[in-house]
Write a structure and sequence with these properties.
By secondary structure, the protein is an alpha/beta fold. It contains ten helices and 18 strands. Strands 1, 2, 8, 9, 10, 11, 17 and 18 form an eight-stranded mixed β-sheet that branches. An eight-stranded mixed β-sheet has the order 5-6-4-13-14-15-12-16, sandwiched between helices. The longest helix has 16 residues.
Length: about 350
């Protein structure tokens, strides 16, 4: 018997386990495969919603606009594990935004006022970003200056290693949740492919699979998979300093010079197959934004399944009608950036001080 059993080893499950363990709870973290292999691994690691003014305030309230706080987490993990999650603070630049005035109005009011969003001179942007000096159609630039990006596969590796070093944490990989163990209106455990495990509280943080699991309690949570395909271009260090959004795609720099190109939005169930059509469309968009990228080879293509939810607002809290079960899922494209505040919100509910 543990205090908490977390179902799902993505960024939400890993951070939940870490936070609960830091507060002295005993925690079991389980995933049907290895930890950190699904949507959290596949995404780009941008530490902001894309075009945040187009999202509801309820989503943006879960965002920490200053990536320095992610840097603090990264430094702690580096000290604990020797793995650097590589948080970069280059900002996010959005080119030729159609609803620019809406963005600027949002930046002056409500939650947008905390984002720091500003309009940047095109000449300044081009001076700082060599990748775009052959681009002729940059007419305007909006900038989120405090925002960065994280190399999320390395973040997940560091979190996993950190948890493996904690005495009050048990990890079960290759352990699929099959059903809930019930005692009247209380959930007392989970039946899995590795046996039955008991806990005072079950937390469902299984990403795109969360809705399916909760149907076993006759609970309808509108979380479903949306495929996203991405590319990796082997470019040179120094070409791209910031995340850039334009032409329906985004470009994300890594410290070694590689550039991520994303991403598709496909409603096709749990299919993670990569396609030539998606590759060609993403490359075409990237080349329109930055023609110089044609000089560099495509290194990799992959796909992940985002956990979509209505208006991209995640479900965070206890499940109505049952005791001993909670959910933290449905973060769609914003799981990494909203994870810390989402986790804090749920932990405050489960372990009030």
């Amino acid at each position: 018997m543990v205090d908490f059993l977390v179902v799902g080893g993505g960024i939400i499950g890993l951070l939940l386990t870490r936070k609960l363990a830091e507060q002295g709870a005993s925690v079991m973290l389980m995933d049907k495969q290895a930890l950190g292999q699904e949507s959290s691994w596949a995404g780009g690691g941008i530490l902001s919603p894309m075009y945040p003014w187009r999202y509801p305030d309820a989503l943006n309230h879960l965002v920490d606009w200053r990536a320095e706080n992610f840097q603090q987490l990264a430094r702690s993990l580096l000290e604990e594990t020797g793995i650097d999650p590589e948080v970069s603070l280059g900002g996010v630049n959005m080119l030729n935004v159609a609803d620019e005035q809406d963005a600027l109005d949002w930046a002056q009011a409500g939650v947008g006022a905390g984002s720091g969003l500003v309009k940047t001179r095109v000449a300044d942007f081009l001076e700082n970003e060599p990748l775009f000096r052959q681009t002729e159609n940059v007419d305007s630039v909006l900038t989120l200056p405090f925002v960065g990006n994280v190399r999320n596969p390395r973040l997940l590796q560091a979190l996993k290693k950190s948890l493996q070093q904690q005495e009050n944490v048990q990890i079960k990989e290759g352990c699929e949740a099959l059903s809930f163990v019930k005692k009247q209106e209380r959930i007392t455990g989970i039946e899995t492919t590795q046996g039955v495990f008991s806990a005072e509280e079950i937390i469902v943080a299984a990403g795109a699979w969360s809705g399916d699991l909760l149907t076993k309690l006759d609970v309808q949570v509108s979380v479903s998979p949306v495929k996203g395909q991405m590319l990796l271009i082997k470019a040179e260090p120094g070409l791209l300093a910031s995340v850039v959004l334009a032409e329906g795609c985004y470009l994300i720099p890594r410290r070694d010079g590689r550039i991520l190109v994303g991403s598709t939005v496909e409603h096709c169930g749990y299919d993670k197959t990569t396609t030539e059509d998606a590759r060609d469309k993403l490359l075409a968009a990237a080349y329109r934004v930055a023609p110089i990228l044609k000089n560099y080879p495509l290194e990799k293509q992959w796909a992940g399944l985002r956990p979509s939810s209505p208006e991209s607002i995640p479900y965070i809290g206890r499940i109505a009608g049952w005791q001993g079960v909670s959910v933290c899922a449905g973060h769609f494209r914003n799981g990494v950036v909203t994870a810390p505040f989402s986790v804090d919100s749920l932990v405050r509910q489960l372990m009030p001080t």
